[in-house]
Amino acid sequence: MDYKSYADLILAIQRNAHRIPSDIDLIVGIPRSGMLAASVLSLHLNRPLLDVDSFLEGKGGWFGQTVQRMVDMNGDANSGHVLVMDDSIRTGGSMREVRERIEEERPGQKATYCCVYSAKAEHPEVDIAFEVTGLPRFFEWNMLRHRIMNSACFDIDGVLCHDPDKAVNDDGPLYGQFLKDAKSLHLPHVKVGAVVTSRLEKYRVETQDWLKRHGIEYDTLHMLDLATAEERQRLRRHASHKAEFYRKSDYRIFIESEYAQAVEIANLSKKPVLSIQHSTLLEGDTTASLIESLPNSMKSSSTARRWVGALGRKILGQEMYHRIRFGKPLNE
Hints:
Layout: E1 2-4, H1 6-16, E2 26-29, H2 33-45, E3 49-51, H3 52-56, E4 61-62, E5 70-71, E6 81-89, H4 93-105, E7 110-118, E8 128-132, E9 137-139, E10 152-154, H5 173-181, E11 192-200, H6 204-213, E12 218-224, H7 229-235, H8 238-248, E13 253-256, H9 259-269, E14 272-275, E15 280-283, H10 286-292, H11 296-299, H12 302-316, H13 318-326
Parallel strand pairs: 1-9, 2-3, 2-6, 6-7, 7-8, 10-11, 10-13, 11-12, 13-14
Antiparallel strand pairs: 4-5, 14-15
Helix pairs in contact: 1-2, 5-6, 8-9, 12-13
């Protein structure tokens, strides 16, 4: 499973911008996601930007309000060299459609077709593909409408809605009001597999009402069957409760808010977990995942594991790190 964040997208564009022909006059983005990639590249190369429809209507390309000037692409179709940009390509349908429109409406137009991520090294619909991604794949900017969410477990607090403040997290009247009024955060546009939360079972009705009011469709709602929040805190059941359900299920990914909990869920379930907090996909063995993210010069060195261990202790705390790393409390 391959996941790319906004940060990954920007870095990929920066690493590959030198591959763009130097005579490009205008960057044309394919809405919606292609406009994101095209905007980043236009800023990096200091080239004007347009969407496909505006380009075909003959509009000039904006550099931005700070410069207040446009490049005139009217007149002859051959008046400039355009770069047509999308974020990714798999089957090539969207790029093919745009290419056909440009060839029909602006015959003779000099154009180069480019994408950031491709499912294979060479694709007939693009001239330049920056990087190859594995399949299945999903991106931070399209995950909430991606079909993989049908096979996902979703945390609630910190993912679907904001976390309760300490002042209202009293397991009483204030918390009850929070459950009704919680502001939404990341709402999926497709049906999700399961909603898995460490909220207590006694709040099921309030939770179901909130999910229904916000149009969230799901197969099942799994909650923690303990009497009080105090007992949940004492038993430290937040992550282990989620991991146990996820491990036994057929769901393919868990969307978790807190990074520390995401690490623990990934280690206990041995399955992929996406941390919303750090926009990081953890693949079961989180130590291996972190080492894989290091520069190549560090990966084969014993320094890598020491570095990852030190980072883990700093982020998680000594007690939590030891429990995740060795599967038992520090004093055992």
